[in-house]
Amino acid sequence: MDNTARDLTDPANLAVELQKIYDSEINVEISWFWDAGIDIRLGDKMNGYLAEDSVRSMAEVVPWLQEAIAHFYPESAYARSLSPEIRDRASRQVFRPPSVGVQVVCPHCGAPHAAPPGMDELLQFVCMHCGSSVEVKAPKIQ
Question: How far apart are CA 125 and CA 76, in angstroms?
Fold first, then answer.
């Protein structure tokens, strides 16, 4: 079935679509704080995030996820199941890089370090595991 034909305001359809993403082993994060919008991230705390956005309604969550997954994981089974229109739109879409939760790894010992909440950019840190000072290169812009 063409995913553009689904009524994503119907809780049953929303559940089916989110289950398909989960079954495809694609990590996402959805959170909200009342009246501050719904935050969506593609990725996870442990491995880092690829993109993020904030939307005003649950009806906007799945369309954003579909385009983000088709953009960043175009060869995934989930992306291949999407309509050609969604995949085409996703290929031209510019996504906002994550502003928090970006993870870097210490090049000396391999220990992970996540930017603390509120940090827009991580420039340098001291590894909590080995004590080495690590300079972080700016992420590549799409």
Answer: 34
Residue range 57-78, pLDDT digits in tens:
988 999 999 999 999 999 999 9
pLDDT at 1 over 60: no
Per-residue burial over 58-83, b = 16 or more CB atoms within 10 Å of its CB, e = otherwise: eebbbbbbbbbbbbbbeebebbebbe
Return d(Cα 38, Cα 57) in angstroms, integer.
7
- Give pTM, 2 decimals: 0.68
- Say whether both 42 and 73 belong to one domain: yes
Query: How many structural domains are present in the chain?
Result: 2
Q: How many CA atoms lie within 13 A of 10 on its CB side?
A: 7
CA dist list (Å): 24 to 3, 5, 88, 138: 16, 21, 20, 30
Both 9 and 75 in a single domain? yes
14 domain residue, yes or no? yes
Same domain, 82 and 28: yes
- The per-residue pLDDT for range 104-121, each reduced to its tens digit, is 788 888 877 766 555 556
